[in-house]
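ok so for the tutorial part 2 we go from a plain amino acid sequence to predicted C-alpha cells. step 1 is just haveing the sequence, like this:
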Amino acid sequence: MKILKKNLADEITWQYDGVVLNRESNSITIEAFFNRDDLPFQDIVLKRNDRFVETFYTDKWFNIFEIYDRDDGKLKGWYCNITKPAVIEDGSVSYVDLALDLWVSVNGNRTVLDEDELEKLGLDEDLKRQVFDGLHELEQHFESKNPPQ
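step 2 — the prediction. this is what the C-alpha cells look like for a chain of 149 residues:
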C-alpha cells in the first residue's frame, strides 16, 4: 500500500510504502517503518526502522501513528496529524496535511505542534474550524491515554 502525504494544492510532498493490517468501512490501519536517520523528537528518539502503526480515517480530520521502538518493541507514543479526511483507494491512502500536529507521550502528556506552520497556510474560517475541531476530538480521545477506536 502506498501512503501519499499531500499539501493544500493536492501535490504529493512525501510518500512511502506500508502493509495493510486492518480495513474497516471508515478507516485503514497500515504498518510502516521509519525511513529516515535517527532524530531526537520531543521526549524520544525516532530511529530508522521504528515500527509505525498508522490509522487513517475517511470521516475524521486526523490520522494517528502509534510508534514502537525498533530495538525493544515498546510503545514510544502517538504522533497525530491534523488532516482532511483520508482517501482510501486500491493500492493507496492519501491525505492532505493541515500542518497542525499532536504528540502524545506514553505517559499521557500532550503537545500541540506546528501552530506557526498552520498560520502560514492562510486557511479560510471553515477549514480552520475543521482543524481545531479535529484537534479537540483527538485531545478528548487521548484523555484516557488511549487512541480512538
